[in-house]
Amino acid sequence: MDDQRQHQIAVIGAGPAGLMAAEILSAAGMAVTVYDRMPSPGRKLLMAGRGGPNLTHSEAFETFATRYGAASERLRPILEAFSPAALVAWAEGLGEQTFTGSSGRIFPRTMKASPLLRAWLRRLGGQGVELRTRHDWLGWDDKGALTFRGPDGPVTVKPDATVLALGGASWAKLGSDGSWSVPLETRGVGIEPFQPSNCGFVADWSPLFRARFGGTPLKGIALRFEGQSARGDAVVTHYGIEGGAVYALSAALRDAIERDGKAVLEIDLRPDMTRSRLTDKLSRPAKGQSLATFLRKATHLPPVAVNLLREAGDLPSGGALAALIKGVPVTLTATQPIERAISTAGGVSLDAVDDDLMLRALPGVFAAGEMLDWEAPTGGYLLQASFATGVAAARGVLAWLAARKAID
Ligand SMILES: Cc1cc2nc3c(=O)[nH]c(=O)nc-3n(C[C@H](O)[C@H](O)[C@H](O)COP(=O)(O)OP(=O)(O)OC[C@H]3O[C@@H](n4cnc5c(N)ncnc54)[C@H](O)[C@@H]3O)c2cc1C
């Protein structure tokens, strides 16, 4: 560093975005302190690790970069600067070998987040990063200092620059509850309302279907809604439906429910079989079998799928039944509460930050991670963008400090 004095940087939020910002800043010689309200860092990352943390995705970058919907154009250069390949190299640099699953999703070989987090915290400690847990950030005082409720009382800090990486507004027990939006809005930062993303949906199942099939997976299906489609698995729940394939369409479904009060999702129960082949199979003589038995034998649909067809009304026969199997309509009337969503849409408006993720209303304060207003399906896109925006915000801090020094 050409400056004699080491710049003091506060990073608030010890999730993937904040810790990544801390890594870049400390490697560049900054004195970095990471604050978090929880007793230990990375709780949502560890939760993501429970079923195997899906770090990123191996699909072509051109496709990858489109997964962020309306935010794709803004995120593209940030993802280019810290790409899925860079994320894999980073994880492997921490000793976590990765593998690519058959769906193209990339995971650590251990299928856990804890070894990665442990190695990461060791590296950060080695780079001099200080971690202050149980520090609940409240906002700024009238002198512009950051204020915290610390374990031993109020704490105020006036760093040279700040990175906010406070997460979204779901799973509050893991630390992020979106309460950070209040001090930011008060200071003129545009905040888009929080909405559930990658969430389950409420369907009006009959009591019998709910009781018998709540918790049963629907495997190898395809979903269609408003010209979008997704293949994969879902789960029938007591309240409706959730799971990977549903999450992939969750933004469009949520927006339609908000607009029209409902969304009619079409489920293709046999995506690997054409409608005419199904019609052919279903037009053969039933030879005294009940329709349900005939249907099961002819199509190999599991009981949950056969009964899902019945939820749509009396079963037709022949070609009409084949058409129903290729697109059984399920009416969704609400999202699951935001608390139970995997992630959230909304947060700091992308118009409120510049290309280096500095808040336009608050020079020297940068924002990263899920607290920014972008959303993406599950598949590694959430962690990838959280890490990449952490990198971008840290580089933004370095560029901003360098530009200020040049002016001084
Ligand atoms: C069950 C589950 C499974 C998931 N699985 C995957 C997956 O496999 N792949 C994937 O890509 N994504 C997954 N995600 C999403 C992913 O974990 C998040 O998108 C990611 O952790 C966001 O990172 P972040 O750093 O922005 O925020 P977070 O990880 O939420 O970190 C924010 C931090 O800020 C702290 N904080 C918040 N407010 C304050 C405050 N006022 N003062 C002090 N500290 C504060 C919090 O305590 C927290 O530690 C999953 C999420 C869940 C809930």
How would you summarize this macromolecular structure in one to three sentences?
This protein has 15 helices and 19 strands.
Q: Taking Cα atoms only, what radius of gyration do you get, to the nearest Å?
A: 24 Å
How many strands? 19
Overall mean confidence score, pLDDT: 95
Strand order of the largest sheet: 12-15-14-13-16-17
| Ligands, deduplicated | flavin-adenine dinucleotide
The CATH H-level superfamily of the largest domain is: FAD/NAD(P)-binding domain
> What fold name goes in the CATH topology slot of the largest domain?
FAD/NAD(P)-binding domain
CATH level 1 class label of the largest domain: Alpha Beta
| Number of H- or I-type helical stretches | 15
Number of domains: 2
Shape: elongated
Work out the strand percent. 15-25%
Unreliable stretches covering 5 or more consecutive residues: none
Global structural class: alpha+beta
Distance between the termini: 16 Å
Largest sheet: 6 strands, antiparallel, barrel
Percent in helix: 25-40%
Q: In the CATH classification, which architecture of the largest domain applies?
A: 3-Layer(bba) Sandwich
